[in-house]
Prior knowledge:
globular, binds protoporphyrin IX containing FE, two-stranded antiparallel ribbon, binds 2-acetamido-2-deoxy-beta-D-glucopyranose, mainly alpha
Amino acid sequence: MEASLLVIPLVILFLSTSANGHGLMVGYYSQTCPEAEDIISETVAKAVKANPGVAASLIRMHFHDCFVRGCDGSILLDSIEGNTAEKDHPANNPSLRGYDIIDEAKSKLEAKCPGVVSCADVVALAARDSAYQAGGFSWAVEGGRRDGRISHQSDVSENLPPPSFDVNQLTRLFASKQLSQEEMVTLSGAHSIGVSHCASFTGDRLYNFSGRGGQDPSMDSHYALQLKAKCPPSNPSNVVVQLDPLTPTNLDVKYYVDLQYKRGLLKSDQTLMSNDAASRQVNINAQYANVWRKNFGRAMVKMGTIDVLTGSQGEIRKQCHAPN
Ligand code: HEM
Ligand SMILES: *[C@@H]1O[C@H](CO)[C@@H](O)[C@H](O)[C@H]1NC(C)=O
């Protein structure tokens, strides 16, 4: 009896790890830390209720973790004497927040099951739980990522897309992470929540289009006027603007509706309308929320497999901000 109880999870473990080919599996902690997913989702739910902006930040954190050195928690490591970490690159500092939520979940996990749940998995699960809080939909997250020990600021620029990228540049960069253009368009729907600092778009869209001055003709002029009022050319660095003017705190398909009305905020958003396949997909997503939701969950799972450390690679950090 006891033997068969043990054999079944082992068979499942074998089948799922061999089936997906990257060593991750759904329900990874169901034996070793059964409460892990609940601990994380409760922590995220509480944090998002106190501050809805947290959901956006935690979804973005998983993206920024996965694209730089793979999903290995490298985004969480602090800079130390002699090494500036990813988190202090201008793409992350000061805009990326929510590290305290990850720390809170991790310390509860360490109290319950020390040394078991990786920080990289906490980030992946927190992104899923954030989507549930902001969008009311969810997906099964594969676990089993292990934490890396390295984080270099210098790895960020070539691996994260800047907001000045056009659709071809975005497609190429995502392809280098084994993500298709379709998945890129799907994942861009995350810009249905959250904010951007003025500096991320004022040059491209409002004041210096193509480096020749003036406004981007692919932006609705009324929207541009509203943005200019919020972001004067002097660019106070702390001002932020909502990425989705229609439903700024709901993770939904209104981002795609914004694009249809030339109200994408970043150049990298509106550029999706300049490509036939991408703009067709924008139109479908704008109309069929359930199609987008299902694809978004799938694409997040796929993003969560980028260059993961598994098995005996890496470590399970005791604290997320420093290697053991
Ligand atoms: C397609 C290429 C992408 C580019 C060029 C891009 C760029 C940006 C930029 C510039 C910001 C604003 C940062 C600031 O100035 O404060 C931002 C915010 C955000 N991004 Fe992206 N992003 C991309 C894809 C993604 C993906 C794939 C996700 C997640 C799946 C994501 C999630 C977010 C979220 C949720 C925010 C709001 C963050 C907050 O409110 O704290 N982005 N992105
Ligand atoms: C506009 O962009 C061009 C080309 O990148 C640059 O040389 C110029 O300094 C920019 N102008 C302003 C006002 O930022």
